Amino acid sequence: MSAPSAPARPFRVAVLQGSVRQGRRSEAIAGWALARLAADPRFEADLIDPRALGLSLWHDAMAPEALSALRARIAAADAFLPVFPEYNRGYPAALKALIDLAGGEWREKPAAFVSYGGRAGGARAAEQLSQVMGELHVATLRDGVLLADIGRLFDAEERFAPDAPAEAALSLVLDRLAWWAAPLRAARESAAALPGKDAA
Fold it and tell me: How far apart are alpha carbons 17 and 141 in whole angstroms?
């Protein structure tokens, strides 16, 4: 089977770091996703990390210039790849705060999730996040990377070692992100606006 062809202009994927905790495993998992994106000519990646941004749960705590720069990065993305744990059957508050800092910049773009946790692999958190992003007119993919019993994929020195099913799941996610990103980017760049009007 031949490799998928690269677009004339790579799709920009914003990888959203979903945890701000010390010792977060999402850092290593996001690094794995970023490495895969960097090796794929269809994509270029931008890591958006709430901790690096010093993100607060309150919008007015972020300097206007920094908020404008963040919104510009989200607007420049063609697709989103949040990487997040499941905490108490939900996704982290820092990720919700990041999402709420922008509005129209999220629209008409695909998103796939890389979640991790215990036996469910973050599936319940992913379901919640899908509802939130759908409200923003993000096209969330059915396919995702669910990393169950996450401790088994880290060694004694906390190095992440994805297994074959994880690698295969991420390959499928990247293929489908590219498939969705192409027509949605074309639609956004056309003169046609999304029908209807949303509340501010």
Answer: 18
Q: Tell me the C-alpha to C-alpha distance, in Å, between residue 199 and each of 67, 103, 105, 135, 182.
A: 21, 11, 15, 11, 27
Q: Are 86 and 117 in contact (CB under 8 A)?
A: yes
Give just the sign of the alpha carbon dihedral 120, 122, 128, 131. negative
The phi and psi torsions of 109 (rounded to 5 degrees) equal: -135, 150
CA neighbor of 165 nearest in space, from 148, 179, 177: 148
Alpha-carbon span 31 to 170, nearest angstrom: 13
Residue 175 token pair = 């293929």
The bridge status of strand 145-147 relative to strand 114-116 is parallel
- How far apart CA 113 and CA 100 sit, in angstroms, is 17
- Helix (H) or strand (E) run with residue 84 in it: strand 79-85
Which 3 state secondary structure label does DSSP give 13? strand
| Ordered per-residue pLDDT tens for the chain, 200 residues | 455 678 889 999 999 999 999 989 999 999 999 999 999 999 999 999 999 988 766 556 788 899 999 999 999 999 999 999 999 999 999 999 999 999 999 999 999 999 999 999 999 999 999 999 999 999 999 999 999 999 999 999 999 999 999 999 999 999 999 999 999 999 999 866 677 666 54
